[in-house]
Amino acid sequence: MEELDAMQSDPVPTLEDRLANMDFSEKMLDLCFILDTTGSMGSYITAATQNIELICDEIINSERLASPECLRIGLIAYRDHPPQDMSYVTLKFGFTSNPKAVKENLKTLWASGDWRPQASKMAVLITDAPPHGIGEYGDGFSRGDPSGHDPLQLARKMAQAGISLFVVACEPAFSGYSYSNDFFRAIASITSATMLPLTTANLLPHVIVGSAFEQMDMERLIREVGHAVAERVVVGIQSVDDIAKELHEKLLLRNESTKQLIVEDIYRDSPEARHNVEVWLNAFDIQAAKPNLKRIIGSRFTEKYLQSRYSSISSSSSTSTSTSTRIYPLPLPSRKKKTSPSSTMNRKQASTSSPSRQVVSDFKVFSNTTPKSFSDYSGKSSSNSPPSIKPSFNSSPLKDVKSNAWTRGTSSEDDSEADDDDDQDDNDNDDEHSHHQDPCPPSSSLDQLHLGVDVKQDPISFAQARRITTSAAWRIIRT
């Protein structure tokens, strides 16, 4: 515990020196959305695109940023490689300080701008499926990305560049795959971020804003104490956990508090899952990891979450009329494909390629001029607040003034209609991965009642101290 005090003669500033001389200068955030635009992602894409201006306003007005120009938004959309998808693999739209310009960029395919070196860098991946090559049944590209990009190596490059990748796991489709959960936990950990489960689309804006708040606090501390911490990691005398523990203790002595996004954990812990995460963390690439993975037996979800879903569906069935109750959502129209008689006859047979994932959005929702309010999911503005006054974080439209916690909201007509898309892909993929599909009922509009999302200002946690330690270490490797 006395080692940091002995570093005062070292030319590198000590942890205490950096803590005592914190510079709360202007903060900047580059926030990049990475959207999976295939499969059953319709409701999540809608939630992100319709609320993008409100997301930006909430971050700016939280007093975390000095001006609108301090926040820039970028977008990367992706689908699949041919022949699974013939439209595009990725589309990149450059960073901009104007949220409305994001909508226009999507129409004109204009792209410019890059990550600012002085900004906090944050990417949010919103998906319900894993990448190619991690060992899933029926993967048409079992050797990985046809372009040769390895996601583990890309994640490490992101970590070296100081880009944190938050993964929003759209459930329950996400956990219908064998290794998706463990893989993305590892990817998020490599980049000093977290994987966040989401069971209903109308909570997505809350998760994005909360992640941004937390990330900016992490970046502030990384810049103040990161170099001293990273030097000790590189020396290798202490473990990352030991260094993070000492950092955590010293930050608590300084009464350091941070914004912390709290999302209820719906995943069942198991030795096999922890083993797989470690395999992904330490493997050189995905091909080296696959032989060492362990199969998880049973559901990925906790008993509490499974019971809540069964209860929701049972309650919905007993209180709704026959005309309004529809647990199994209708599928979206399929993309038109040329089919041969032989392919039609063999449709029910097990496929040797990855499941075809239908396109659900061409980003037309970005053309909407009036986004919905987070706090009023009917799409109407609240009459209690003057429209000319923008709320601060303490009076955030995301916040429940009675409970001092963030509201979970209720679905609007748009959300309910979009939620109908959530599981349409499940029926298409029954043959491909039915052998490990979780024994979990289909999505219900009542899922939101059973997943807590909150943001709190609390003393810094050990998990955050560890993220600071690992992120600082990755960045010093780059230099």
Which characteristics define this entry?
479 residues, alpha/beta, Rossmann fold, six-stranded mixed β-sheet, two-stranded antiparallel ribbon, VWF_A, VWFA domain-containing protein, protein serine/threonine kinase activity
Question: How would you concisely characterize the structure shown here?
Answer:
By secondary structure, this protein is an alpha/beta fold.
How big is the Rg? Answer: 23 Å
- Helicity range: 25-40%
Number of helices: 16
In spatial order, strands of the major sheet run 3-2-1-4-5-6
CATH fold category name: Rossmann fold
> Beta-sheet strand percentage?
5-15%
Broad CATH class = Alpha Beta
C-alpha geometry: globular
- How would a textbook summarize the main sheet? 6 strands, mixed
Structural classification: alpha/beta
Low-confidence stretches: 1-12, 18-24, 106-112, 320-450
- Mean pLDDT over all positions: 69
- Could you tell me the number of beta strands? 10
Query: How many structural domains does the protein architecture include?
Result: 1
Order of helices and strands: HEHHEEHEHEHEHHEHHHHEEHHHEH
The named CATH superfamily: von Willebrand factor, type A domain
Report how far apart the termini are.
28 Å
CATH hierarchy: architecture: 3-Layer(aba) Sandwich
Description:
The protein has one domain (23-319, 357-376, 392-478): von Willebrand factor, type A domain (Rossmann fold), CATH 3.40.50.410. 37% of the residues lie in helices and 13% in strands. It contains 16 helices and 10 strands. It has a 6-stranded mixed sheet with strand order 3-2-1-4-5-6, with helices on both faces. Residues 1-12, 18-24, 106-112 and 320-450 have low confidence and may be disordered. Residues 312-448 are annotated as: Disordered. InterPro entries: Thr-specific_kinase-like, VWF_A, vWFA_dom_sf.
